[in-house]
TrEMBL record:
It comes from Niveibacterium microcysteis. It holds the Pfam family N_methyl. This is Prepilin-type N-terminal cleavage/methylation domain-containing protein. It comes from the Bacteria. The chain crosses the membrane at residues 20-42. Keywords: Membrane, Transmembrane, Transmembrane helix. InterPro entries: N_methyl_site, Pilin-like.
Length: 148
């Protein structure tokens, strides 16, 4: 009758040809990974910057759309010129709240009446780095649309 042992004893024999990675293999993988990350980082950075600029332009478009409503609510008229951009309206806030680094250029004055009607005109938004977008405000409601 043979006796079965529930737990066989393991020997302390070192197996030759053990699996694993050598230091050279690890360094090669690290080098390749670093090169790929170095190539991808500028593209990611550029994409993030474009997204920030696009978000800034969209914010400014919404503010122009809301400007008409703000004037109707406050009962005030406005002559929108380059000089008035920093001055508060009758509701105590400036016409636009520009994101950091953005600028606005208004070629000719745009008149907004207390009833919300406007004379129309162009507003150029300048993003950091000089990228510009021209918005056209068509009378009488001055809903902004981008110039082609």
């Amino acid at each position: 009758m043979s006796e079965s042992r529930p737990h066989a004893r393991r020997s302390n024999v070192v197996v030759s040809g053990a699996t694993g990675f050598t230091l050279l293999e690890l360094l090669v993988v690290l080098l390749i990974t670093s090169l790929l990350a170095g190539l991808a980082a500028p593209r990611i950075s550029d994409a993030l910057e474009r997204r920030r600029i696009d978000n800034g332009f969209r914010l400014l478009e919404r503010q122009i759309s809301l400007l008409r409503q703000r004037l109707i609510a406050s009962g005030g008229a406005l002559k929108l010129t380059q000089d008035i951009l920093e001055k508060p309206l009758t509701d105590g806030r400036p016409p636009f709240s520009l994101p950091e680094g953005f600028g606005v250029t208004i070629d000719r004055e745009i008149l907004f009446g207390a009833n919300g009607a406007c004379s129309g005109g162009d507003i150029v938004f300048v993003a950091p780095g000089g990228l510009q977008r021209r918005l056209i405000l068509d009378p009488p409601f001055c809903l902004p649309r981008q110039a082609q």
